Amino acid sequence: MSLQTWLLFVTTVFFVSATPGPNMLLAMTHGIHYGVRRTLMTCFGLMTALGLIMLGSVAGLGALLATSELLFSIVKYAGALYLVYLGIKTWRSLPQPVAELREDDSDKHGPWALFRRGFLVAMSNPKAFIFFTALFPQFMNAHQPQGPQLAILAATFYLIESSWQLSYASGGARLARWLNSARRLRLVNRFSGGAFVGAGLLLTGLSRQ
């Protein structure tokens, strides 16, 4: 892989990752409610799922999803249902002062719960499998060993994606003080909940192409 090809990959992933979507919305929302330090578990869940998606794509699951309408639909609707469920739950949640949430280490708001939520949100989009299956080969040299090239692309993606997640989480954390009122937190919950429901509904319209 040439330096020019790698730089083109960096540019592509930089702008793709920067685009607001369910992953970044979750990182920002958790940044508001839990602060950056605790949101690291959310980001860890997101990145763990993305790592599995990349492995699945390399193993051929992305190609399988691209050719099997039934399997693609099953994964798609399961992901959409989870996003809609998360959106309704977020919409209906009672506004709780940020300071209390940041100190709340119960099962509902503990590290494992944040990790699980991040993992499930990232896994909810079947097109991510196809995205990696289609994206990586565009930047790989077929005449060079594939393993090292895949490792470089995956590490680059991880670095850029995690940096954007932390940026969104930090932005949310900086907004927390201004948002720390019942009325404003209710608006945040409803905005986030509506966005997750919207993402779930949009997901049902995805096609394999």
From TrEMBL:
Localization, UniProt: Cell membrane
Pfam assignment, any one: LysE
Keyword Transmembrane helix part of the UniProt annotation: yes
Keywords in alphabetical order: Cell membrane, Membrane, Transmembrane, Transmembrane helix
InterPro entries: LeuE-type
Chief localisation class: membrane
Regions that span the bilayer: 6-28, 40-64, 70-88, 118-136, 148-166, 187-206
Membrane topology: Multi-pass membrane protein
Family: Belongs to the Rht family.
Name of the featured protein: LysE family translocator
